[in-house]
Amino acid sequence: MKKQFSRTDRFSQQMQREIAMILQREIKDPRVLMPTVNDVEVSKDLGYAKVFVTFLQDDPEQVKTALGVLNEAAGYIRSLLGKRIKSRVTPELRFVHDVSLLEGIRMASLVREARERDEERAKNNPDDEQE
Length: 131
Hints:
5 helices, 131 residues, elongated, 55% helix, 15% strand, GMP Synthetase, Chain A, domain 3, single chain, alpha+beta
């Protein structure tokens, strides 16, 4: 059975693609270093959109600065988006740093460390494996 996607899901996917292209081609500010649009959450009435982005830099100050630049340029980005998307309403944009990627890396690191400790324990106590 095919999964049905709501209008807001389709709209947010289209917005994600278009915003990524706009950031790549139109925003030339050196403080915004290689932004990646990970997700877009659109409100039910399509009036507001939360754009989750990550940047090449990991420094919290640089991320804060880049988010400030993007949020200041949100009106310009919205106007470009309105020309590209065939919709009556263009949502108001708010850019947010997406920490899920960093959290995923942290979790993978914790799992790797736990496995390494288990393997080390198994090498030091071969009797435990037989039980």
